[in-house]
Specification:
The chain is an alpha+beta fold and 282 residues long. It has eleven helices and eight strands. The strands form two sheets. A six-stranded antiparallel sheet has the order 5-6-7-3-4-8, with helices on both faces.
């Protein structure tokens, strides 16, 4: 979250993005209708498949518009609180649309380790930090399984013994995650904390919209995720520990995370000390 300042009105920009998304949705619906008429005339399955693709794209654009409109509302509310207010991050609008207390995006490497994370608030960010440190949790499972995962109450500790207990200490009683897909590749996960009842459908829709229109799509705007924390320094530190100890990089990464967990510190802080030569592991 950043202080409100000058420059272009971010709420107005969000509303413009929302309007563009709704225009794209209308174009996709018109294209779907054309394909459906062709399917009726020709009886060809191709036109039916194209119609479904256009309708799916229209649904993504409508959800993207809802996210931008929610973001505009949050920004307007913050501006009304005065110049000392802070600007809510875009992930706060994701949480609002999903009807949840908190939401977080994780971008994953091929080995399912976090490359970056963006969160709606500090509790959600802390939960994602725990998952990164412990190597267990819903975002990882959703990415590995390629499907939605959820747990609540006692199921949290049954499924993730350490992470579940830590999540409960943060005040969360339920968690759900879905993979972020680009074609046949999983690029990350969307996780929500204490979602409303029956939110699974909207969670999938939001994840689809984020992936196809905001994260990797042609209308992607990396600036929306100004609060994204890159794990680059962590992986750099792991490389340095690997060279020093002679162990594999994956094992070195676990050493860095274990040190952070044992000291109760953010893993980036520990990694920065290693990179600066202030801390030697192994």
């Amino acid at each position: 979250m950043q202080p409100l300042g000058g420059g272009p009105d971010p709420a107005a920009q969000a509303l413009r993005r929302a309007a563009l998304a709704r225009e794209r949705a209308e174009r996709e619906l018109a294209a779907a209708a054309r394909q459906e008429r062709l399917a009726e005339r020709t009886g060809m399955d191709l036109h039916e498949r194209l119609a479904r693709l256009h309708r799916d794209s229209a649904a993504c654009q409508r959800t993207a518009a809802q996210l931008q409109e929610a973001y505009a509302r949050l920004l307007t509310g913050a501006a009304a609180d005065g110049p000392t207010a802070t600007t809510p991050g875009f992930m706060a609008s994701v949480a609002e649309v999903c009807g949840t207390r908190g939401a977080a995006l994780s971008y994953l490497a091929a080995d399912r380790s976090q490359l970056a994370v963006a969160a709606s608030d500090e509790p959600a960010r802390a939960a994602q930090e725990l998952e990164f440190l412990l190597g267990e949790g819903p975002a990882r499972d959703a990415a590995v399984a390629g499907t939605a995962v959820s747990a609540s109450g006692t199921e949290l500790c049954e499924r993730w013994p350490v992470y579940g207990a830590a999540l409960a200490e943060l005040g969360f009683d339920e968690v759900a995650a879905v993979p972020l897909r680009q074609h046949d590749t999983c690029v990350g996960s969307l996780t929500v904390f204490d979602p409303r009842s029956g939110a699974a459908g909207s969670l999938i829709e939001v994840a689809d919209a984020l992936t196809r229109t905001m994260v990797l799509g042609p209308q992607a705007d990396p600036g929306l995720y100004g609060g994204t924390e890159l794990r680059a320094v962590v992986h750099q530190a792991a490389g340095m520990v690997s060279v020093h100890t002679g162990c594999a990089v994956a094992d070195a990464l676990e050493l860095v995370k274990a040190r952070a967990f044992s000291e109760g510190l953010p893993v980036e802080g520990v990694a920065e000390r290693i990179v600066r030569g202030e801390l030697l592991l192994g």
